[in-house]
Amino acid sequence: MTALSTAALDALGNDVAVPSYDRTAVRPGIVHFGVGGFHRAHQAMYLDRLMNSGVALDWGIVGVGVLPQDRRMYDVLEAQDHLYTLVVKHPDGTMEPRVIGSIVDYLFAPDDPSAVLDRMVDPATRIVSLTITEGGYHVNQVTGELDASDPGLAADLVPGATPSTAFGFVVEALARRRAAGVPPFTVMSCDNIPGNGHVARRMLSSFARLKDPSLADWIADEVRFPNCMVDRITPVTADTDRAALASKFGVEDGWPVVCEPFTQWVLEDDFGGDRPPYEEVGVQLVEDVEPYELMKLRLLNASHQALCYLGYLAGYRYAHEVCQDKLFVDFLLGYMDDEGTPTLPPVPGVDLDRYKHQLIERFANPEVRDTLARLCAESSDRIPKWLIPVVREQLAAGRGISRSALVVASWARYAEGVDEEGQPIEVVDRLRDKVMERAAKNREDPLLFISDQDLFGDLASDSRFVAEYTKALSSLHERGARATLEGLAG
Q: Domain Mannitol dehydrogenase N-terminal spans what residues (predicted)?
């Protein structure tokens, strides 16, 4: 078995693809906050493709971790010369490993914040990209404005403070570039948020305005924030994935990434300076990302929510198990056809019917082993962005909402923290205490859960939604998830 490192690449054999380029020639051009599985299966992979074709060697990635748990990623990548293995899992059981070399450094910000700022201020850094999760943008779900109550943001707003958050670093680095006469970098959000570039611009500008109004004006005028849609199912790496990579291919990797074969990146061509030639490796460069983005958020992401709570309550633990069950597949297709799709604008070049059936095939891939627990996590950041807009548009148009209301009710039931067998559920959510406190009173006060205006706005006062939601919640309590779906199908 070979421990992954630069020196070991030649020993990995023909079954493992390795970088064909000289990594010593790669120079940093991108700083990325939030180096997790998805970034390494997606953006870093596309850059590695470019580098393997002999271009973009001045676009190496410097990862940045700002959270305490990011130290583990620092330790693993540092030990492996910042290499890692991306393992594509095909439905037939075959595995396709490739060592990715586009990450050239990783900085753990709490140890040396000055090094992070120096790298970001360096003129060679032309893009700062983000996968900081939906909650990392600190958006009030109802007003759409910045929620500056986060303790980290508050600390970064103290005059003279050393940055500790992604927002703090980005704004401070832009301030220093402005003062030094260095052109600003492009901020590229790659998170699953509608209008992610617009959201990043609005939130970062709002944060900057609390520090320096003139800086905020400069950011609004000078910094580019392209929107993009990103798509690749990337489950959490398990010990079994490490073991399989070691046993089948002889690679000892402390943190490999596993993913499905499908990948898509639709990117708005709106950069302040130069950019990698992404279009050469399959990225769709477009003028307007919104149709593709809405398609993905309201069909793929919302469907993940539609299957995860109900599936978990029914006893399943993996997405592929749910999507090999006709009852659940029919429910998902019914949601997509009758509630999600009517809210979408035309999507250029996409056959939506084929796309929806392809989603089911992707979800049903037994090799990916995407856990329902992962899909159920951070629901308070996901349901308001992915599903509630569908509910609102359907209500406004007088169309059906029964399936969407059931999804919301299934979240409320899941958040009670006990499954249908009486076993505890580990609810993972940044608003866990508040969500679970409301869910605990579902039976005595069925409207309390959806009365949280920060998550649902005024939906608790809409009689149509209330009727569908309370009916669904009552059925989940009295009959369970499977019988509720059978009743809906009947």
A: 29-277
- The per-residue pLDDT for range 47-86, each reduced to its tens digit, is 999 999 999 999 999 999 999 999 999 999 999 999 999 9
**pLDDT on residue 194:** 87
Q: With contact defined as beta carbons under 8 Å apart, do 149 and 208 qualify?
A: no
Phi, psi angle pair for 80, to nearest 5°: -110, 20
Examine the pLDDT at 88 and tell me if it is beyond 90. Answer: yes
Domain check: are 257 and 323 in the same one? no
User: For the chain, give me the number of helices (H) and strands (E)?
Assistant: 22, 13
Range of the domain at 366: 290-489
Q: What number of other Cβ atoms are within 10 A of residue 56's Cβ?
A: 24
The whole-angstrom separation of Cα 487 and Cα 344 is 28
Helix, strand, or coil (residue 355): helix
**Residue 142 has what pLDDT?**
78
**Whether 241 and 300 share a structural domain:** no
How high is the pLDDT of residue 24? 97
**Could you report the per-residue pLDDT of 212-238, keeping only the tens digit for each?**
999 999 999 999 999 999 999 999 999
What CATH number corresponds to the domain at position 115? 3.40.50.720
* pLDDT for 141 beyond 80: no
- Residue where one domain finishes, among candidates 267, 286, 305: 286
* One domain for residues 302 and 273: no
d(CA 242, CA 265): 27
Residue that terminates a domain, selected from 286, 301, 322? 286
Distance CA 294, CA 441 (A): 34
What's the rounded Cα separation, in Å, for the pair 312 and 48? 37
Partners of 268 in the β-ladder: 286
Kindly report the CATH number assigned to the domain that includes residue 437.
1.10.1040.10
